[in-house]
Write a structure and sequence with these properties.
The protein has an eight-stranded mixed β-sheet. Strands 1-2-3-5-4 form a five-stranded mixed barrel. By secondary structure, the protein is α+β, with helices and mostly antiparallel strands. Helices cover 30% and strands 27% of the residues. Helix 4 crosses helix 13. The protein binds 4-amino-1,4-dioxobutan-2-aminium adenosine-5'-monophosphate (4AD). 4-amino-1,4-dioxobutan-2-aminium adenosine-5'-monophosphate is lined by residues 162-163, 183, 185, 206, 208, 215-216, 219, 221, 223, 353-357, 397-399, 401, 403-404, 415.
Amino acid sequence: MKITIQEAPKHVNEEVTIGGWLANKRSSGKIAFLQLRDGTGFMQGVVVKSDVSEEVFSEAKNLTQETSLYVTGKIVEDTRSDFGYEMQVSNLEVIHVATDYPITPKNHGTEFLMDHRHLWLRSKKQHAVMKIRNEIIRATYEFFNTNGFVKVDPPILTGASAEGTTELFHTKYFDEEAYLSQSGQLYMEAAAMALGKVFSFGPTFRAEKSKTRRHLIEFWMIEPEMAFMDHEDSLKVQENYVSFIVQSVLENCALELKTLERDISKLENIKAPFPRISYDKAVEFLKEKGFDDIEWGEDFGAPHETAIAESFDKPVFITNYPKDIKAFYMKPDPERSDVVLCADLIAPEGYGEIIGGSQRIDDLELMEQRYKEHGLTGPAYEWYLELRKYGSVPHSGFGLGLERTVAWLSGVEHVRETIPFPRLLNRLYP
Ligand code: 4AD
């Protein structure tokens, strides 16, 4: 019977066949220990000289890294390994011999590994990160589907900018100019007026010249948008959603977290509600901490966010930023027109901002005024005004950056390891 490594626990004491690759190998005179991987997991295969034919034993001893093969044998429990099972190999059949595989079990530099990303993905750590990414995506669909949201797909080719014009990727669209989407939000607002509570999950493109551990040129964003929900309602959805994905990863990715040596005590307490601090208070706090490079009205940089996050053991919302440093669509605080009803959610342990969200302006006149201030004109923007013309309602939404969330939960330093094929300032290949 052909099974996968993931299915091994259900086949203890059975003779099965697994198709896989040789990740690593150790051998003493009479035993060869094969570290096998098959895409679903990693497992040891033990080949004992006295239990197999001479030909099989010699083949096992000569296997090279990343050679593909079928291994047949009995699944047994193995309490010494994290996986908990191994195979007592009785036979093996080589499919394709790999020679001189470039990524050896020794340490390689990051640039080398990034050049070989198409192969690096096979390694145990990268495999674990991709599984955690997948679990966050799965849990996202579960959370929004069970809470009455409808998945809506905004376009990727757009005629207008959603967040600001400096970071847009331009492309030709027959005789017109188009941009790659930097946020689906404007379309999601239209969708919320049609379907109530909606969410999107898609690629996002930003021509940011930032070379930091938190910036990708192409990243994936989850953008919920909710009609009849104010800023406060939205914060509740955000903290419940983030708590849900953290608990889902803890529950369903225990082995992966162990592989990554993630300190799970830092994740176990991530449950709603999350602490909040206003922008005003955050500036005061930073000044008290000795940051003299920040004045009211300026945006926070990574060191500021990290200093704020360090005083909490859960993600923290920084709320009500100055209007002038935020996007044109954010609703002013009715009690103070110099700040807007918005929040950024900062992850603990220095992983930075994972969510940006706000209540949206729902008043037509005010939105028209913002258009004038920001010089937004033309057909690309006109339709958005109509959402305020025909049955406008209070509504809010947010965007969660998938890769920063994966980095935080996996405990990996840099977002380049959280997406299969990262697009960075200096990298378009592989
Ligand atoms: O704060 P941002 O720019 O928000 C928006 O785009 C809103 N339109 C979302 C909405 O309300 N629907 O981006 C949201 C999140 C950030 O908090 C961050 O996690 C991630 O997207 N992000 C990036 N991730 C990786 N690389 C980049 N260059 C990123 N820029 C933003």
